[in-house]
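Put briefly, the fold is written as integer tokens. One such record reads:
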Amino acid sequence: MNAGGWPLRAPAPPGSSRPQRRSHGRAPPLRAAAPGRAEQVEARRGRGSVPAGPMEALSQRCPLPAAQGCPRPGRGTVLLVMTLSLLMYPVLRSLALQMHAAVTGSYISGTHSIAFINCLNEQIAKDIARGIMDKRLAAYVNILPKSSALYFWKGELEESTEILLLVKTRTSKIDELSNYIRSIHPFEIPEVISLPIDQGNPLYLKWIEENVPRD
């Protein structure tokens, strides 16, 4: 024991190493943190010891091509689309109006027309009107009384009397009606003109539709 009564530590035998005291002036060295599970797997995978997953193996075997931007349409394509749109507009509009009329039962402006046909006399007018009705080219034909007419023919002013026919029919029948009149009319250039019916009595317009077959 020493003077204070504390037991003294026996001296270390020769050749043995005594633990050294830590220096108060330095911090003890830090131990490196053990790598986590993910880092160990990545390290082993880098050395080839851990196989890659099925999707990773597939991506390694079949690498995806680099993303490419969408090709921009050329001027020719744009012009073609615009041209087709303009050409299809009347057809699409007609279909839309027909669907609307079928659903609502309303009349579509211009579906029916009135045609004007001039005739030399009353007998010719009756014959032409009868032929029109026999061919179901109209639902109704008015034969107006004789009237006076002035017109130019081959550079000369002419005056005559004539009978006028008013023909109510479908607008789609006007071309067929005109061809028929030209084939039987005694005039070299017969008058066949038409005006579309905008609106009218729905029942009367429906009656015309029922009595003139569709094309």
About this structure: The chain is about 40% helix and 20% strand. The mean pLDDT is 78. The helical segments are 37-46, 54-61, 75-104, 122-134, 174-184, 202-211.
